[in-house]
Amino acid sequence: MKPLTTGRRVKSWIFQHGYRVVELYDQNRVWFVCKYCHIHKVIDTGGSGVFDVSKATSSAAAHLGLQKRGHGFTKDGLKPRRTGQQLSLRQTLETGVAVSQEAANAMGNFNIQQFREVAVFCLLDNNLPMELLARPSFREMISLANPEAEAALWVSPRSVATYAMRLFQYMQPQIVCALSEAASKIHISFDGWTTKGGKRGFFGVVAHFANASGVIQDLPIALPHLAGSHTGDAIADTIKKTLQEYSIGSDKLGYFVLDNAANNDTAVSSLAHAYDFNAAHRRLRCGPHTLNLIGQAIIFGSNQEAYNNNNDEQLQTEEVYMQEWRQEGPLGVLIDVINHIKTPQQHEIFRSFQTAANAELPARERLHVLEPVKPVVTRWNSYYAAFKRATQLQAAYNSYAEHYINALSLEDRRACQRGNKLPEAPSWMRSTGLTAADWAVITEYQDCLEPLKLATEKLEGRGKAGKYGAIYETIPVFEYVLGALEARTRSYEQVDFNPPDAPEDHLFVNLRAAWSKANDYYNKLDRSPAYYAATCLHPYYKYYCENSWVDKPEWLTSANAGFLQLWQSYKPQRTRPLSQTTAKPRHRGIDDVIGALVRRNKAQVEAAHDDEYERWRTQEPEWTSEQYLSDGHPVKYWIQLRSKYPCLSQFAIDILTIPASSCDCERLFSELGDLLEPRRRALGSELLAALQLVRSWRRAGFDGLYNNGDDEDKWSDVKDEEIVQQYDIEGWSTTP
Predict the structure, then answer these.
(1) Please, which residues have CB within 8 angstroms of residue 507's CB and are 6 or more apart in sequence?
(2) Of 103, 148, 289, 653, which residue is least crowded by CB atoms under 10 Å?
C-alpha cells in the first residue's frame, strides 16, 4: 500500500507516517493506517492504528502524537519528549515493565472519544472558553497526568465547537423520544430575551411533563433567534416550528403558561386555531409575574381608584403628592443612598461604618461585613431584599448618610460665604437623612411585602420532589395574598389622614392598588377550569375550594361546571344502559305510591358508582399536612392509582404537571447570559443556542454518545465542514 492523493484535497501531514486507504466499493470512505503499528503487527494483535479519516484527521493525528515508540509526531515534525513527565499506564507497559496479564486487562485502554466528550461537557458546565483546550499551560497540566489525554485534546476551538454540535445532533432525538414517552401532556412556556446592547433576541421554549416514573421535568427544547417585531403571529409561527421539530402533536399538546403580555394572547389564539383547542382554557398566566406586579403596586402604587377620590382636581393633586413622596420619602431616600454606593471608595467607606457599628454591639449580636443589596426596577423582590438588608445595617446606613450630609453642609456654607453657586449633589444629601420614623416606614413596607415573598417561593420553584411550583398551588396562594392585603388595608380604614399631625396615607393608597391588581388576576383564574381542576385533583387540596367558598355557592356551581367539561373529555363512554324504571301499576295503595319515591333512584346510584371522580372523592382519604410536607408527590400518587382510576388518573396527571410559572425561561436566559460572558459575543446564534441546550439536557440526565455505548460512526453522516457552515463556527472568534 502507498499513500494515495486526489485532486479534491491536499494530502494531510499524517500520511507521511502511514497509509491512506480507500474502500473499493465506497471511495468516499478513507482510512489511515499507522505505518509503525502496521509494520510491528500492533494492529494484528488488536491494538490501535487504523482510523476513519473520511470526516476528520484529528483522531489519527492524536494517535501519531502519543509519546511512545515509533510515534510522537506533530505537523511540524517529531515532538520533543518532556523531562520529568509521568508515563501513562499504556506507555509503562510499552517500556517493557513486567505486568501480569490480569493487571494489564484490568487497566484497559484509554477511551479517547469518551474523554473528549467529558472535556466538552466540562467546558459547557463551567462557562469556560473553548480555546482553553489549546492553551499551553492547560495542556501541560493534562499531559503531566496522562500524556494520552493531552494528545486526545483538540488544538483548535473550531474542532471543539464542531464536536459540541455533533453532541447536539445526537442528543436531540433523545429529547424527542422522552417527549413521546411522557406520561402527561406536554405543557409549554416561552418568553423573549435580548442580549446586552439589544443586538440579538432569543426566544426560550421550555417543555414541562412527567416521565413514566412520575418525575416532573422542565426541559428547554428550543432557543430560536427572533428577528423583527415580536408580534403574536410571529411568536405562534416560531412555536409551531418547535412543536413540529419535536413531534408534539395536538393529542400531546397541553397548556401554555406565559406572562401577561398581550402578544402572548394573540399567539395562543393562533395556536388554538392550528391545533384545535380552546384558547381561553389553555392560556394560563405566570403566577410569580403577577406577584411582581402586585409587589410593585405596594412599593410604587399605580391605580387611581386606590385614592378613593372622585374629584378630578383633588385626584391630580394627590397623584403629584404621591410622586413627590416616592422620590423624597423614606423609600426614595433609602434607594438613593443605596445607589450612591457604587465605587470602590464608597464601598470601603460603607464597610468602615459597618465595622464601627459592630464594635458597639455585644459579641453575640455582631454581623459579618455585608454588601448593600441594590434594587432592580423591574423586580419587586429586589426591593424587598434591599429593605431587609438595610434594616440589618441600619446603623451603618445612618452613619454613611450623615457623613455625606455633613460634608455637603460644610461645602454649602463655604459656597454661601464666597457667594458661589451651591455644588451639585443628590437631594438626600441636603435632607435630614433617615430618621427613626423613616425606618419604621421602611420596616412596615417590608412587612407588607413578606406575604408576596412567601407566595413567590411557593409558585416559582418545582423543588426536588416536584411538589411546589405547580398549578394546584395557584388558588390557595392567591387567596392567601388577597387575605393578607385585605387585613393590612382594614387596619388603615378608620384612620383620618386629614389632620396635620396624622400619618401619611401613602401605604394605604398603595395597599389598595396592590389589592386591586391581585383581585384582577384572581378573577382571571375563572377563564380556565384548569386551576380549579388542579386544586380538586390534588389529594391534599381536594376539599380546599369547597371549604374556602362555603359562603359563595355560585362560585362552586360555576367552577364545577367547568371541571365537568374538562372531565367529560377523559371519561369513558357509557356502554351499558341505565336501569329502566318499571311502569307504575294503575291500582296501588297509598303506601306503595309513596314508597316508590322514597328509595334512591337505582340509575343514579349506578351512575355515581361509575364516575371515577366521585368514587375517588368519597372513598380515598385526603392527605394530611404531614404527608404533603414530607414525601407527598401528587403525580406519583396518581400513577399508583392508575389501575383503580384509569381515566381519572390520566386527567389528574395531565393537569397536575402544569407549572405555576414560566420562571424556567428566565433561568434559561440567565444561563445564556453567563454562557456569552466574557468573550463570546461573536458566537453565532444557532451555535449559542445548541451549546445551551446541550448543557441543559446533560444536567437533566440525558447522556452523550459514549455513555450509551454507541459507535461514533452511527452519530451522524453530516461532515464537519457542513456543521461548520451550518452553525457559523468559522465566524466565531475569541480573544485569548
Answers:
(1) 441, 444, 445, 448, 492
(2) 103
